Amino acid sequence: MRDESYCQLLKQLTANTSSKPDSCQRGWRLLYILTAYHRCSEVLKPFLLKYLQQASRSAGAQYQGIAKACEQNLKKTFLYGGRIVPPNSMELKAMMAGRSSKRQLFLFPGGIERHVKIKTCTVALEVIEELCYEMGLHTLEAMEEYAIFLVTNKGQNVRPLNKNEYILDVATEAESVDSGYSVWFRRVVWTQPLRFENELCIAMQYNQILPDYRKGLLNVLSHGKVSNQQFHQISKLAALQHRAKDIIYTPSIHELSEYIPAPLFKKQPPQQWVTMATQHMQQVQPLSPHQARAQFLGLVSAFPMFGSSFFYIHSSSSTTFYAPCILAVNPRGLHFLHKNTHELMAAVPIVEVQSSRTQRPSAGTSYPYVDLTVGDMNTQRVIQLQLEQGLELCRVIAMQVENMMSVREKRHTMPPSEITML
Asked: Is pTM beyond 0.90 here?
């Protein structure tokens, strides 16, 4: 049926003699929609591509532009599977009027806004590449560490997008559920070294890390004790946050209480924090806000839980740790932390995570479950976790596992120079 539809359209577009002036134009626009949604058979594919290529390269041809767009749509449909969600009335009217793109808002951490031109067949991977290029990141390894999230219900539902998902499919579905939806851009994996040249890149990562630092999630204190060196480090980090806001005067007690994690702020009198922060303000005063953010990232990147994604676990079937607790996911594995002290209770190396899948809430419960299968090939056990962001947790774990496998493959692959020498 798909091949038949393509053949009927090509027949209409070839030597069109219709008395209707827009017959050929409407045929091309319908073909544009068809190539975005449906593959043809492998038998028809070379002939269809040749037809579109000839139409797009014929000198003086009236429909060169749309023919080229149809060819690109078809190639993407074979690569990514094709659009799934039917276009809404607004998109359909735009396509039939010859308009094939819209500007979509993507939110970086800290409320930084970026508008990206989205075409009919733009997928999440292409948006990630474009935003990474703007941040000065050009390698595939760097781009693989970022993801796009669909956020609905005022931030209550966060769904990570697969990199092959069509942005307009996602937007069309989201609009029908929540007209106030938003799309976030975040870094998920933190194995690549920090880059300090690009201001947007530093601002994005600083804004993403800052809330977790202020909650006291990045540093684990042994038995709740703070050394004199740690007091000075925390004071310097407070001064850097103050300078990052382009402020040069000494921070107040109220401001310091925002900059310093609450469990740590209580460890000494407020006035002592002011005295220590004042000393560090003199050192950081010559820095620009960008340099202050970069220094802050450089210091906290050495913290044990830097680069983790954090999830609040309401309950668990495990007997090796207590819930409620906090789960930190990073390249080293899954770390279950005490909800108050953030001390490590249990850990599962990422190599031992065999699978993760979401389960619907059971009767009488409000949050979904995630079943984690962990262990080696001989001995495995299932840990059931109850949390709000189950789908997000599964996607984050998947990205960490994919990153681990990618690193392993590179270790077993010889560089071209060595192959040449052999």
From this structure: no
